[in-house]
Amino acid sequence: MADIETFKQENRIFNPPADFVRDAAISGMDNYKAMCAAAERDYEGFWANLARENISWQKPFTKVLDESQAPFYKWFDDGQLNVSYNCLERNLQNGNAEKTAIIFEADDGTVTRVSYQQLHDKVCQVANGLKSLGIRKGDRVVIYMPMSVEGIAAMQACARIGATHSVVFGGFSAKSLQERIIDAGAVAVITADEQVRGGKQLPLKAIVDEALAMGGCDSIRNIIVYRRTGGNINMQQGRDLWLQDVTAGQAATCEPEWVNAEHPLFILYTSGSTGKPKGVQHSSGGYLLWAALTMKWTFDIKPTDVFWCTADIGWVTGHTYIAYGPLAVGATQIVFEGVPTYPHAGRFWDMIARHKATIFYTAPTAIRSLIKASEADAKVHPKNFDLSSLRLLGSVGEPINPEAWMWYYRNVGNEKCPIADTFWQTETGGHMITPLPGATPMVPGSCTLPLPGIQAAVVDETGNELPNGQGGILVVKRPWPSMIRTIWGDPERFKKSYFPEELGGKMYLAGDGAVRNEQTGYFTITGRIDDVLNVSGHRMGTMEIESALVANPLVAEAAVVGKPDETTGEAICAFVVLKRARPNGDEAKQIAKELRDWVAKEIGPIAKPKEIRFGDNLPKTRSGKIMRRLLRVLAKGEQITQDVSTLENPAILEQLKQAQ
Ligand code: PRX
């Protein structure tokens, strides 16, 4: 959780540069305020105009917002469109056929450029290939692919034929993949033989095989494999097909499947406060509108820009700001296969210089680790690279501490690039609270103000709005076009998680705490208020990790909490009770390693606890509830000052104090 004190003391203000303001799509605070006022005056009219301007509709919508089944809101529902048509044909018609859509840089530095025409043709071939396998509108397709043009084409091809994709991050384990395949009821998996990261070849197809071998994936008919490395894999006859074979001889045109605006474009699984990941379901029309609008508002995208979002397509950032947003506005973007530290930690800066990137969007964790790397090795410091092409920077996924913000501003942006600290979530579909680069004065560590039309507020537990300066719960008071539509297969959980009765059932509960500055009204996110951790910008449920741990035959009980970490923001700390006596010394180290590997197998390497402490028991109340807030204090290495009189077993705290 971010340290609120740091932000309270933060009073430096950085104004956007004058030339940026002059040329920006939203220019100056008066312009921003006028847009907010327009949305306030005529909420539906505001969104309707934007939806007409930014999207090509096959059949125009007549209704804007349907609240009749709230909180299952519908936007533009009787309108028909196709998302892939909007991302491809719309650009061909705008004279961008020969414009570079994607500059793909492979792990080994090989660069491939793909024009809008070429991308269109590729997507159509994949779409026709999927159709030839009997995949139809409404079917679910799991995509488990590396960062690649093919990964993006697979997503776009699904959109083109009206199939709902569910991308699973390539770092998730077979078990996680299997659970998602089953929950989505997917008919096919699109994957690659292997992925390449940091010079290493890592399996993908073998993990899909393992997931299917676990059973329960009966809905799967085909596995389609993109040949990335040529590595040795098994192909099961009748089930497994090479993507190259599926697309061979397919036409380079494919009539798009026109779908209603509410048709589910994708499901993306994310962690919640209970054990099971939630399938966040997004729409077609409202989502696409948001992807396009935020490219214009937040990133001020211009035809000459070279945009680079360093996220992976396995996360929502890679959906909205790689697979859809940049294409929806006809931008040129960089897509990167590798990792920021290979072959050296100056890779990002080197790529910005070589491709003349103008907009760079990354996560605070990456910035913090590159700060460390450049302190250790001056050669990889950004000052050694020509970053003069940059005009705008962005940050996403976790709070950015003011120190990292300042370093980014000075050393990467040369004090001339605004920084968009974009607060949003898988559920929100796109940016919600962020500075506008040509309007909003910036304060390091604050995501500043909501986008026009977004009615964000800070409330108490009963939904009453709190005065500025008082910390509380972050909510959004009105529905917006790109909001989550439901949790796939679990509408009740959707209602309970996001529109709880305690808040009146009408406010969207983000799950984060926030505080607004007394003078400026600026928002600062203070961290999750539920049992969700943010490790390196990756969202992890503590319950998910606990379930994984207790599934190990050695473990009787486990409690997982976050502890602040300089580089990853938060780190996972697990308190574990074994079924046998508490281990010590080397044995404890050995078992801790076993358990970490176990979690990597159950969920994925990103969920490995950084620290594991063993105890004879966990601190519990007399009614048997684990007192996690005490564990959080212990994990931080701080003294317990809270009242522990309700504890059944106060002596256990002493034992759990020690890191093994
Ligand atoms: O806690 C907030 C944090 O990341 C959570 C959302 O995670 P996820 O759904 O994985 O989406 C990440 C990419 C949008 C939020 O609930 N978060 C995200 N952006 C910020 C942030 N916290 C502070 N500042 C941000 N800019």
TrEMBL record:
UniProt-listed InterPro entries: Ac_CoA_lig, ACAS_N, AMP-bd_C, AMP-bd_C_sf, AMP-binding_CS, AMP-dep_synth/lig_dom, ANL_N_sf
Which residue numbers delimit the AMP-binding enzyme C-terminal domain?
A: 544-625
- Please provide the record's keywords in A-Z order: Acetylation, ATP-binding, Ligase, Magnesium, Metal-binding, Nucleotide-binding
Q: Which Pfam families did the record assign? A: ACAS_N, AMP-binding, AMP-binding_C
What residues does Mg(2+) bind to? V550, V555
Q: Which residues form the Acetyl-coenzyme A synthetase N-terminal domain?
A: 32-87
Give residues annotated as binding ATP: G397, E398, P399, D421, T422, F423, W424, Q425, T426, D512, R528, R539
Any idea of its EC number? 6.2.1.1
Cofactors needed by this protein, per the record, are: Mg(2+)
Cite the binding residues for CoA.
Answer: R197, G198, G199, K200, T317, S536
Q: Where are the transmembrane segments?
A: none
Role description: Catalyzes the conversion of acetate into acetyl-CoA (AcCoA), an essential intermediate at the junction of anabolic and catabolic pathways. AcsA undergoes a two-step reaction. In the first half reaction, AcsA combines acetate with ATP to form acetyl-adenylate (AcAMP) intermediate. In the second half reaction, it can then transfer the acetyl group from AcAMP to the sulfhydryl group of CoA, forming the product AcCoA.
What HAMAP family does the database record attribute to this sequence? Answer: Ac_CoA_synth
Q: Which family does it belong to?
A: Belongs to the ATP-dependent AMP-binding enzyme family.
Can you say what this protein is called? Acetyl-coenzyme A synthetase
> What is the protein's species of origin?
Noviherbaspirillum aridicola
